[in-house]
TrEMBL record:
It comes from Ephemerocybe angulata. The keyword Signal applies. One of its GO terms (biological process) is attachment of GPI anchor to protein. Residues 348-367 are annotated as: Disordered. This is GPI-anchor transamidase.
Amino acid sequence: MLPLTLFHLFLGLSVSLLGAFASDHQEETVKGFFGRNGTSQSTHTNNWAVLVCTSRYWFNYRHMSNALSMYRTVKRLGIPDSNIILMLADDASCNARNKFPGSVYANPGRHLDLYGENVEVDYRGYEVTVENLIRVLTGRVEPSVPRSKRLLTDEHSNIFVYMAGHGGNEFLKFQDNEEISAFDIADAFEQMYQKKRYNEIFFMVDTCQANSLYSKLYSPNILATGSSQVGENSYSHSSDKDLGVAVIDAYTHYVLELMEGINKTSQSTMQDLFSSIDPNKINSHPGVRSDLFRRPLDKTLITDFFGGVSQIEVVDDEEGVEEEAGLVGGNGKDSVSSTAPAQASFAIPERRASHSKRHIEPVSNTSTTSEAKELWGWVGSSTRAWGAVALFGGLVGWVRMRS
């Protein structure tokens, strides 16, 4: 009985040591596999946009074109209508003064109609209120509200919140009837954080004294920017003589000017975006608040907020090196190789990325899953092989002891 007991002890010790080794190696390998992109990469799995025009009346035409221009941009970069909440306080396209009925333009040349068959307005006219905006952000909507008018985000969602209208120090007017304060916005974002409704938020405001609207934010993982400091106005960029009104605001115009040179696979960062705005051109001083944001701006891609999410693999043909990258595509469905359309809206040349040495191959979630399965399978087979060796060695030792 003594040799048999020693055999059991030896076998148990061998299996325990091999199991510990395999477990440590497995954990290290899995962490390396899923941490290939580094800590500067976003961990979000879906993108949403909330675009708000808060002004009524024909002379505020530019505020509607601001929101519609942002709407066109995020759609072009891969965020589908199902993930966009568009709120327009007025419908300039149907105004009796509109010389071009059913159309909205953002430049005097009228090269691109921003308002057409593909525009889905979720809240229009008197539906655009402070209460409805806060309900949308926090998810506290009535049961009768349809799915298309809800912000169905989770803790893995990146949200782009854009607001344009008339404002002042720590407030933004809604239809000359009510105001939302910087405290209201800060508390709404905090409710979203407590309810795990976002991964990161990018908050952009184009209004007079816009920077004051993000001054009260206190929730984590929020990046904010505004068009003007406290005491400064936010100015329009250009007017259309046929329409008789300004057609876009300066800050939004120059943001969109940069965005027109970006496609779904762009590596441009938020730092590039903020650095591109010249105070001399917009006649005000834009601001950025990043103390609540956990990632460096020069490592945060613009498409982390303006684009859809897709996993792709960048392959170097000459060196045969593959890198896993979380670049943007069409919400995980559209082709990631598409480029930006012709620059008719803002009349600037497109800066296309050079791919002379690289090609981009889409990688679906099933591909990542299968690779992980292979990894786990390898770990399991290695453990079984070492266990067999230990068992064989134990049996040999036991036979010698009996002889």
